[in-house]
Amino acid sequence: MKYLIYARVSPRGSDFEGETSISMQIQYCREYVKFHGGEVLDVKSDEFVSGKDTNRPAFSGIMAELESGKAEWDTIIVYKLSRMTRSLRDGANIFASLFAQGKGFVSATENLDFSSPAGRAMLGMMQVFNQFEREQGAENVRNKMISIAKQGLWPSGSAPFGYARGNKKDNKLYPDARKASIVRDIFEMYASEKITTRDICCKYKKVLTKSRILSILRDKTYLGKICYANAEYPGAHDPIISQELFDRVQRKLPKPKEHSRPKAYKYPFVLTGLVYCQCGRRMTPGTAKSGAYAYYTCTDTLDCKTRVSAPKLEKAALDFLGQLDIRDEVFAATLRKIEEKRDMTIKEIQPEIARLKKAISEANTERERIFSVLTAGNLNDEIKQMANEKMEHISSELTTLKTRLAIYEQETSSDTDIYHFAMDLLKQTKRLSKDLSEINDPDIQRRLLLSQLQKIQALGNDEYQIYPAYTESSTKGIKWYTGWDSNPHV
Ligand SMILES: [Zn+2]
Predict the structure, then answer these.
(1) What is the CA(462)–ligand 1 centre distance, in A?
(2) Cβ atoms 330, 470 nearer than 8 A
(3) How many angstroms does the Cα of residue 459 sit away from the middle of ligand 1?
(4) Domains of the chain
(5) What number is the average pLDDT over the span 233-244?
(6) Ligand 1: centre distance to CA 274 (Å)
(7) Which of 11, 18, 78, 116 is the most buried (most CB within 10 A)?
(8) What is the CA(284)–ligand 1 centre distance, in A?
(9) Mean pLDDT, rounded, for 405-425
(10) Cα(270) to centroid of ligand 1, in Å?
């Protein structure tokens, strides 16, 4: 295993009480790697001058390398999780990037295995949640644009040819004298019988392309309107073209092509790739000829021919996700795992703690002995110097031993960052699962299902076997019936 060590000190600096210095963090990580028979490939650290958590050149470099797919290390190791991130959201994103590239994460003094199925399921959920929030943000932007358009102003981007936007925050359109006269000329030329778009192109080939000219000829902005998100609003700007001229041009323009008519409704199959037939084969989405019924059908179309209703199957899967009892199960299982790992670590390091304590007491005895030699007097300079050197050596060794002991003792305490991080994640996941399963957005639903389910097997008679992402793939799935929505064990 190849490790990348990452260390960090906060703006308070390494001298601040309770902060572990960068060199100490690195030393501890090196010892961890050595202990586990790994190899340290690289060491990176951030020492803060400014207080902003985002200003971390070394860490940004690590993430950039990771996302480029060129990272040669297998696992990133930190002294404590808080060295890498203090924010739950950033944490989830960082882990998602790590796992997407098949990389691992180790906190040398804490224990939570995010590469376990349960850990991955939690992080998958956090990712979906972040995405959902971003999309909410996009929706807000869209609403803001619409409100700008309703005021008769240009919502976003550069102004259409023939107009210019006002300065900075002024979204009003102002006719640009030179370009507006070109627009007028284009409309007038096209409106006359003998002139074709080709003629116009020849005249303005240095200014506009043919497709641009065609889109200008259809653009209602020149009538003094604002068109945004499939709606028209009266604009605050002056028209360039009269309604009469515009209408004449529209009559001459070719009809919009067939393919631009609205597409037939397509059923969003949110479980594609996750559905298995009772016979064990995969099931693929399909619709009845009329398009009114959506199914998942067995890939064995010769003998098995099973097909199940897509909405029913999807409802079962989403109900399953929204089921709190099952999240409780994950909650308990993950907690147990964290506790088990901690117990194991404590057991592993107890002998080490004992050894360190013994070494410290021996060093103390030795120091006292030398001290008494030094204070006994009548020593020649050579011996005095030797004793002093020995004294210094033992003192520095004592410091190292004591620091190491402090680290080990901290590790055995239950008050670690990662424990709280895990708790937060678990609590949020519990709530999110329910909220997200109720969102009527196929895209969000699909990502949620992909992150939370390994597969779902349709057993027939509205009965399903669901394999959640947090269980090992070898374990049996959980039985589920359509219609179960509060308690699966009835
Ligand atoms: Zn089948």
Answers:
(1) 15
(2) yes
(3) 10
(4) 2-109 (3.40.50.1390), 151-260 (3.90.1750.20), 269-322+438-490 (no CATH), 326-421 (no CATH)
(5) 94
(6) 14
(7) 78
(8) 11
(9) 65
(10) 20
Pairing mode of beta strands 2-9, 39-47? parallel
| Percentage of the chain lying above the pLDDT 70 cut | 73
The CA 286 to ligand 1 mean position distance, Å, reads 14
Q: Report the sign of the C-alpha dihedral through residues 52, 58, 61, 67, in that order.
A: negative
CA angle 413, 414, 417 (to 5 degrees): 105
CA of 287 to the centre of ligand 1 (A): 17
pLDDT at residue 223, as a whole number? 95
Q: What is the pLDDT of residue 22?
A: 85
Whether pLDDT at 420 is above 70: no
pLDDT in the model for residue 16:
47
d(CA 264, ligand 1 centre) in Å:
29
Q: What is the pTM of this model?
A: 0.48
What's the 453 CA to ligand 1 centre distance in angstroms? 20
Distance CA 449, CA 443 (A): 10
Helix, strand, or coil here: 317? helix
How many angstroms is it from 363 CA to the middle of ligand 1? Answer: 73
Distance 452 CA to ligand 1 centre (A): 24
Mean pLDDT (whole number) for 280-309: 86
